[in-house]
């Protein structure tokens, strides 16, 4: 009998005839479609990130964040303002049905519903289509959210009293006050502390008296006749006490 006669060979496609190492194709076989992650792609990412980081550092060095005076819990007239990314929520709380007895509705329920709707967006539209016109639900919700945020932020910025806020937050000069002097005792007795502060730094009802640049005669006239929101007749002391007070206030300096 000849070799192989009556024998059949069965091939299995899962077993390759030639053993080849499991090495991916070279990137040169995909011209213009892909590139190596290391170092090509990662190097580009680092370069772009470095440019933005340097630009951000230059911006912070050229325009440092503005600082305000130390928080005063007794200043009930201070108007707080949140950071820019929360201005839309700050404006929302100004409306009738989101403030007062409805604060919970405006501060918790309404933002919660909006955030929950955005979380549900991936589950509301699972289609593979990427064109906005083919995804009306998700695109419509995002456009509505974006328009609401822009509108509320704009309203908050345009209606805020920036001049008053800047005056309220201004860092006042501090001075070393001789609390044992006769002038300071008169200052306390005439209840000037309630408006101008115990260190003459000013408060909600009165301006700072540090570095006021006024002469004793001008201070005495203001104490008797008043000025601006300060009514006349507040000072009830004698002429001698008025002179002592005027001399004391005129010499208060931060230097």
TrEMBL record:
Subcellular location: Membrane
Topology of the protein relative to the lipid bilayer: Multi-pass membrane protein
Principal location class: membrane
Example of a GO cellular component annotation carried by this entry: membrane
Lineage: Bacteria, Bacillati, Bacillota, Bacilli, Bacillales
The keyword Plastid is assigned to this record: no
Assembly with partners or alone: The main subunits of the menaquinol:cytochrome c complex are a Rieske-type iron-sulfur protein (QcrA), a cytochrome b (QcrB) and a cytochrome c (QcrC).
Domain Cytochrome b/b6 C-terminal region profile per the UniProt entry, residue ranges: 27-154
SUPFAM superfamilies per record: a domain/subunit of cytochrome bc1 complex (Ubiquinol-cytochrome c reductase), Cytochrome c
Domain Cytochrome c stretches: 178-253
Organism: Metabacillus mangrovi
TM regions (residue ranges): 46-63, 102-124, 136-154
Binding locations of heme c: 192, 195-196
Swiss-Prot/TrEMBL keywords: Electron transport, Heme, Iron, Membrane, Metal-binding, Transmembrane, Transmembrane helix, Transport
Family indicated by similarity: Belongs to the cytochrome b family.
GO molecular function (one): iron ion binding
Full protein name: Menaquinol:cytochrome c reductase cytochrome c subunit
InterPro entries attached to this UniProt entry: Cyt_b/b6_C, Cyt_b/b6_C_sf, Cyt_c-like_dom, Cyt_c-like_dom_sf, Cytb/b6-like_sf, Cytochrome_c550/c551-like, MenaQ_cyt_c_Rdtase_cyt_b/c-su
Keyword Coiled coil among UniProt keywords: no
Entry-linked PROSITE patterns: CYTB_CTER (PS51003), CYTC (PS51007)
Function comment: Component of the menaquinol:cytochrome c reductase complex.
């Amino acid at each position: 009998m000849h070799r192989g006669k009556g024998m059949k060979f069965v091939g299995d496609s899962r077993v390759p005839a030639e053993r080849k190492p499991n090495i991916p194709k070279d990137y040169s076989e995909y011209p213009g479609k892909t590139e190596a992650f290391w170092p090509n792609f990662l190097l580009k990412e680092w370069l772009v990130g470095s440019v933005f980081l340097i630009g951000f550092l230059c911006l912070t060095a050229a325009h440092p964040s503005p600082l305000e005076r130390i928080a005063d819990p007794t200043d009930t007239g201070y108007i707080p303002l949140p950071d820019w990314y929360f201005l839309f929520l700050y404006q929302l709380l100004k409306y009738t049905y989101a403030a007062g007895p409805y604060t919970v509705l405006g501060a918790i329920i309404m933002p919660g519903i909006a955030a929950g709707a955005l979380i549900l967006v991936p589950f509301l539209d699972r289609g593979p289509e990427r064109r906005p016109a083919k995804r009306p639900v998700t695109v419509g919700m995002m456009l509505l959210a974006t328009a609401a945020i822009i509108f509320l932020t704009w309203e908050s910025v345009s209606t805020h009293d920036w001049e008053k806020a800047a005056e309220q937050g201004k860092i006042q000069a501090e001075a070393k006050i001789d609390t044992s002097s006769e002038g300071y005792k008169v200052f306390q007795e005439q209840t000037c502390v309630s408006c101008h502060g115990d260190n003459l730094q000013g408060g909600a009802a009165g301006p700072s008296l540090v570095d006021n640049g006024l002469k004793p005669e001008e201070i005495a006239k203001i104490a008797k006749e008043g000025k601006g929101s300060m009514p006349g007749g507040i000072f009830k002391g004698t002429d001698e006490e008025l002179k002592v007070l005027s001399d004391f206030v005129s010499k208060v300096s931060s230097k």
